Amino acid sequence: MKVNIDMGAATNGAVAAMDLEELLATRLLVQGNSGSGKSHLLRRLLEQSAPWVQQCIVDPEGDFVTLAEKFGHQVVDAARTEAELTRIAGRVRQHRVSVVLNLEGLDVEQQMRAAAAFLGGMFDAERDHWYPVLVVVDEAQLFAPAVAGEVSDDARKLSLGAMTNLMCRGRKRGLAGVIATQRLAKLAKNVAAEASNFLMGRTFLDIDMARASDLLGMDRRQAEMFRDLSRGNFVALGPALSRRPLAITIGPVETAARSASPKLMPLPEAPEDARDLIFTPGPEEASPVVRRPPPKPVPTADILAQLSRPRPAPDQPAEPVFAVIDEAEREAGIDAVLREILEDPDAAFRSDAVLYQDFLVRSRIRRVPGEPLPLSAFRRRLAVARAGVDESTGGEAWVTALSLSEGLPDDLQGMFLMIARAALNKDPCPSDATLARAYGSHSPRRVRRLIAYFEERGLIVARTDFHGRRVLAFPDLGCETAPGHPDAPDETERDAAE
């Protein structure tokens, strides 16, 4: 079905039409400095296409929540856990509901993590739910930065990976990315390069104009035209817009953002008591802080005399300052807390940071003696606990398996050790659903990719018997799992149901 969206007027007076079906297949990049009308363009696109396609807007400033009242979008407040956002995204795709992910009020790192969790949930939806969705990401340079910034590497990798999946691999899953940015130079090149349609607005920096001219296939001297564009005017190019660069003016919109551009307004008449108004605290304000005078400077001779004095020998304490810690009791307490965490059915789908905070709280409740485990040690102990074998009682083969797992990323160690435990015990090979829970995912396809990754590292060898059951062998351990069907249900969920 061919649907043309009216984006406004072209220079020749014709209607600037956008082929919606072609847009879903080829994606769109919008660029313009602050005040160029970029958000107005996105609002026009969303309003015109709302009756025809499901929409998902990643909104860092809360500007697009006003679409909810007129067009029925559901506003998803991002102040939730990452696991909850991922599950909501899966239900959004299942029920084909248009949503606005409101990231307002979160700091930059929290916004990146929340957007990554939501986009990851949409990307990992079941194949039966791969309906077409227009995914609009405003201020895309925040979620796909070209260089590392002040946020942690973990948050940047999560967000950049989600944006890369959206623009590079999302088309086959029905996800059509529409990304908007103020600075092309700050946007990751592998994300921007996947768009085939472009709407370039006003920009002044040479580096951004150079990137824009490269994407549009224009001469560098022609890129000077971007400086002369007025607010709401863009240069369009792409199979869904125009085969040649075309200047268009974006049409009006039906809804408005909660924030508006600043407008000049006359100043009020200066009151006679202006001085008292600004220097006298109001009744609701806190009492002013009293500034103490700085201490008198100490002569240099006195400082040198103090430094030259011999330090008195400390008195020997009659008793130890700190209580003697029973290591066996401490280890038993840590193991008990880890078992409590893993008994929660949702623990597998929570991030290590959330589980670590839960571990610290439970350790204080149980009064586990000694310093708490650092995050790196907690991740290691958690991976071993998920495998279900004690480090001290697993034998030499289990020690070898632990040594092999140390070379893997933290999030893969639990899944690897679970397979190793099944091989050492001659148990059936765990199913994709069981391994997905150990990895913290609902996607069997991701499990199969990770098994292929283990094979590439030379850690395991996978084979299938004549009945279609999977067997995973460990050359370094000299053992293999019993045959197991990869499509069997999750053992944990099945035991809970029984």
Please tell me about this protein's structure.
The chain is an alpha/beta fold. Among the domains are: 4-250, Rossmann fold; 408-489, Arc Repressor Mutant, subunit A (Orthogonal Bundle), CATH 1.10.10. 41% of the residues lie in helices and 14% in strands. The chain contains 19 helices and 14 strands. It has helices spanning 20-26, 38-49, 67-71, 82-95, 108-123, 140-143, 153-169, 189-192, 206-216, 274-279, 300-308, 327-343, 352-366, 375-387, 395-405, 410-424, 432-439, 444-456, 491-497, and strands spanning 4-10, 15-19, 28-31, 54-59, 74-77, 99-102, 133-137, 175-181, 197-200, 233-238, 242-250, 461-464, 470-474, 479-480. The strands form 2 sheets. Strands 2-1-11-10-9-3-8-7-4-6-5 form an 11-stranded mixed β-sheet. A hairpin with a 4-residue loop joins strand 1 and strand 2. Helix 12 (327-343) packs across helix 13 (352-366), helix 14 (375-387) packs parallel to helix 16 and helix 16 (410-424) runs antiparallel to helix 17. The longest helix is centred in the N-terminal third of the chain and has 17 residues, at 153-169. The radius of gyration is 30 Å and the shape is globular. This is AAA+ ATPase domain-containing protein. Residues 24-213 form the AAA+ ATPase domain. Residues 489-498 have a biased composition (Acidic residues). Residues 478-498 are annotated as: Disordered. It comes from Chelatococcus asaccharovorans.
The chain-level mean pLDDT equals 82
Indicate the CATH class of the domain at 4-250. Answer: Alpha Beta
Gap between N and C termini, in Å? 49 Å
The order of strands across the largest sheet is 2-1-11-10-9-3-8-7-4-6-5
At CATH's second level, what is the architecture of the domain at 4-250?
3-Layer(aba) Sandwich
Shape, please? Answer: globular
InterPro entries: AAA+_ATPase (IPR003593), ATPase_Atu1862_pred (IPR014588), HerA-like (IPR008571), HerA_central (IPR002789), P-loop_NTPase (IPR027417)
Pfam family, one: DUF87
Protein name: AAA+ ATPase domain-containing protein
Domain AAA+ ATPase: 24-213
